[in-house]
């Protein structure tokens, strides 16, 4: 994953509820909710995107907001320095694992979900470390397909890929040869570079594993066309 993609993923691992902010600052929860709504309005954000329900001890349902670190700190800018310090300290504890978030609306402990997500992020990052040639777009797409279903929203957006890339099989069909020949020619002439295409994740032909597979752009197809017809690559 790119550094920005990793940052996007990790930003969803930890969140803080408006109830916890109220508890830390000694404010009434209804007042924190009002402050959140004012902040959302000022930032042109839809409050519904951050809203969740929780139940009190009597089973009554109320509203709360879940904020990421940026929004939490933005909210706290309107509070006193001692209160900002308490919240900042709490964030450090959450990120370091010294403390766990408050309970979610369903009564499940949020840290279990955060822990699962954190482990998934680490696994994805380690996987990509084993695939150094993988294109950033491919890493972002793979991370989105794995992480987004866990968090329940598009924490990692799908990249915009403007140029079309073709598999060895698709190029072979265009040029009237086999995919194996395309691979052999590309390897022999060092065509598997950014000038001629990019590496993407693809299913292995001999197993269910995902592997790096080079896909060719228009330059790559043209270079292969010249080589197959006996011309040198420009």
From TrEMBL:
Protein name, entry field: Transcriptional regulator
Species annotation: Intestinirhabdus alba
Domain of life the protein comes from: Bacteria
Pfam families found in the cross-reference section: Phage_pRha (PF09669)
């Amino acid at each position: 994953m790119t550094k920005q993609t990793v940052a996007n993923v990790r930003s969803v691992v930890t969140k803080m509820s408006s109830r916890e902010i109220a508890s830390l600052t000694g404010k009434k929860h209804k007042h924190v909710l009002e402050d959140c709504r004012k902040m959302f309005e000022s930032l042109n954000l839809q409050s519904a995107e951050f809203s969740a329900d929780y139940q009190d001890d009597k089973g009554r349902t109320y509203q709360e907001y879940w904020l990421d670190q940026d929004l939490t700190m933005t909210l706290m800018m309107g509070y006193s320095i001692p209160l900002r310090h308490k919240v900042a300290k709490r964030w450090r504890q959450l990120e370091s694992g010294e403390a766990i978030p408050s309970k979610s609306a369903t009564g499940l402990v949020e840290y279990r979900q955060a822990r699962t997500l954190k482990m998934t992020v680490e696994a994805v990052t380690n996987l990509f470390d084993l695939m150094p040639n993988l294109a950033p777009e491919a890493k972002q797409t793979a991370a989105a397909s794995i992480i987004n279903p866990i968090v329940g929203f598009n924490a990692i957006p799908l990249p915009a890929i403007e140029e079309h890339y073709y598999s060895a099989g698709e190029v072979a069909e265009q040029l009237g040869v086999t995919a194996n020949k395309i691979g052999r020619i590309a390897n022999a002439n060092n065509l598997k570079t950014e000038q001629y295409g990019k590496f993407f994740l693809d299913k292995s032909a001999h197993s269910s594993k995902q592997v790096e597979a080079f896909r060719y752009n228009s330059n790559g197809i043209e270079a292969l066309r010249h080589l197959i017809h006996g011309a040198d690559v420009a």
